[in-house]
Amino acid sequence: MIEKINLNNILFLDIETVPEEENFNSLDAEMQSLWDLKTQYQRKDDFTPEEFYDRAGIWAEFGKIICISVGYFTIKGDIRNFRVTSFFGDEKKILKDFNNLLNNHFNQPQHLLCGHNAKEFDIPFIARRMIINQIAIPDKLNLFGKKPWEIPHLDTLELWKFGDYKHFTSLKLLTKILGVPSPKGDIDGSQVAHVFYVEKDIDRIVTYCEKDTIAVAQIFLRLRREDLLIEEEIIHV
Q1: pLDDT at 233
Q2: Given this model, what pLDDT does residue 183 score?
Q3: What is d(CA 167, CA 29) in angstroms, rounded to the nearest whole number?
Q4: Apex 102 CA angle, 201 and 68, nearest 5
Q5: In whole angstroms, how far apart are CA 208 and each of 50, 123, 188?
Q6: Strands across the sheet containing 112-115
C-alpha cells in the first residue's frame, strides 16, 4: 500500500523539546506540585520531583518545542531531491511558521505527515502546544471527528510494528538494521536540554533534528524497497 503513495505528498518531520523552565525551582509552587503528581508513577521512590525534572520535555504540559525540522521530496522525471528546513527559536513563532507551512503548502486531501513515533509523540505534542499558545490547529493536526482511515498521518514505528502494539523500536535501531546511515551526531535526546539551556547551542540541536528527519525519510524509502538518498540529493534550505 505505501508503495502507491506519491512521495511528493509526504511531509516528513521531527521535533526537539525541552523542559519549559531551565530548572525545577523556576516553576511556581502549584506547577511543582502538579509535576510531582504527574510523574509519581514514573519516579516511584527512585527520584524526587526535582531530580526527575530534566525529563519534563517529554510532556507537553511541562515542556516546550525548540525545533521542528521538516523534509519533503521533489521528484521530477529521474531527478530526486529531498529538501530539509527547520523552524527554531521562540516556540510561538515555531508553531506559527509550521502552521503556515501546513495551511499553505500541505493542506490538500492527498497530503500526509510522517514521523517516527509521531502519532504518539510529535503530532500530539505540537497540537497541545498550539492550544497552550492559542494558535489555531491546522486541519492536518485536528483529528476530532475523523475516522481512523481519515487521519492523514504515517508513522514509521507503526509501519514497522505490523500490528504488534506492544513493540517499540527506536529510530537508531531501525536505521541500523535497515542499513540506513546513522542519523545521530554528537548528541542524543537526553542531552538536548543541556545543549539548549547550558551550552546555548541551538544550531547543534537543529542539525540533530534535521538528521532525524532525513532518517525517517530513508526508513520510508527502505520500507518501499527504494534506493536510499545520497548526500547530493539532500538540500538544506
Answers
A1: 97
A2: 64
A3: 38
A4: 15
A5: 27, 19, 8
A6: 153-155, 112-115, 10-19, 63-76, 79-88, 234-236
Residue-level pLDDT at 184: 60
- Kindly report the three-state secondary structure assignment for every residue of the chain: CHHHCCHHHEEEEEEEEEECCCCHHHCCHHHHHHHHHHHHHHHCCCCCHHHHHHHHHHCCCCEEEEEEEEEEEEEECCEEEEEEEEEECCHHHHHHHHHHHHHHHCCCCCCEEEECCCCCCHHHHHHHHHHHCCCCCCCCCCCCCCCHHHCCEEEHHHHHHCCCCCCCCCHHHHHHHCCCCCCCCCCCHHHHHHHHHCCCCHHHHHHHHHHHHHHHHHHHHHHCCCCCCCHHHEEEC
Model pTM? 0.95
Which parts of the chain have pLDDT scores under 70?
183-185
Question: What does the pLDDT read at residue 185?
Answer: 67
| Lookup: cell for 196 | 539548549
Number of CB atoms found within 10 A of residue 210's CB: 22
Whose grid coordinates read 530539509? 84
pLDDT of residue 39: 96
